[in-house]
Amino acid sequence: MTISQLTLFILIILLIYIILELWKVLNTSKKIQQDLDEKLEKLNRTIQILTARLDAADKELFIDQLDEFEVDEDVKLDPLYNEAARVVYQEQNASASLIQRRLSIGYAHAARLLDQMESQGLVGKTMGSKPREVHPTAGNVDTLFDEAVKIVGEGETTSLSQLHRRLDIGYARTARIMDQLEMYGYVGPSNGEKPRAVLKK
Predict the structure, then answer these.
(1) 6-15, 39-48, 106-115: segment of lowest average pLDDT
(2) Which comes out higher in pLDDT, residue 42 or 19?
(3) Together in a domain, 45 and 91
(4) Are residues 114 and 86 in the same domain?
(5) Neighbours of 182 (CB within 10 A)
(6) What's the mean pLDDT in 114-124?
(7) What is the pLDDT of residues 60-111, one digit of tens each?
(8) In this structure, is residue 6 part of a structural domain?
(9) How many CB atoms lie within 10 A of CB 44?
(10) 175 neighbors 160 (Cβ within 8 angstroms)
(11) Full-prediction pTM beyond 0.70?
(12) H/E/C letters for each residue in 42-77?
């Protein structure tokens, strides 16, 4: 075998080797692409399921908030708003770190609650690292709030139906006043059908 024939033979072997390697790479790429397609399809299905569940949860949450909280036009208040507002009022300290500690929630959640309190007039604007100013109850409560305080102060317990009868107003407004009484520490939290405890008079 001459040198030229040997060179040609080596080139043919190299060419075959390159073709085989390319074939392997192409097959591997197809397999990887198929795996990726399957994973993307699963991910899309998961996203669709989660989106559907979150949409349903958001609708339920919105309905709950309409039942529980007084809203200004289209503003939805956080489910923890009343509890956070009560902490801020009782401590006379409107800081996200206080709410975070007392309610065992994240800092971002606590900051959003403070922003809602600002929009409702309960606390002042942010002042850098200093706690926000806590505003007095005037202007932040129903006009019948003081009368409601007198009514609940007559006994050791109170209820929504009692307040509803005595104030002679709608049930929804009565519920909002009761929430405000709880927020400012006059009555305890709701305990099912049982009357609420009167905490201060």
Answers:
(1) 39-48
(2) 19
(3) no
(4) yes
(5) 19
(6) 82
(7) 444 444 344 444 444 577 888 878 887 887 777 788 888 999 899 999 898 8
(8) no
(9) 10
(10) yes
(11) no
(12) HHHHHHHHHHHHHHHHHHHHHHHHHHHCCCCCCCCC
Tokens, residue 120: 């409702």
- The range of the structural domain enclosing residue 53 comes to 36-68
How many structural domains does the chain have?
A: 3
What are the b/e assignments for 147-157, b being 16+ CB within 10 Å?
A: ebbebbeeeee
d(CA 121, CA 134): 9
Is 82:183 a contact under the CB 8 Å cutoff?
A: yes
Both tokens of 162, joined, read 């009692």
The predicted-structure confidence for 165-181, as pLDDT tens digits, reads as follows 999 888 888 888 888 88
Rounded Cα distance between 126 and 167, Å, is 37
The token pair at 148 is 């409601």
Which of 98, 119, 137 represents a domain boundary (last residue)?
Answer: 137
**Domain-ending residue, one of 110, 137, 164:** 137
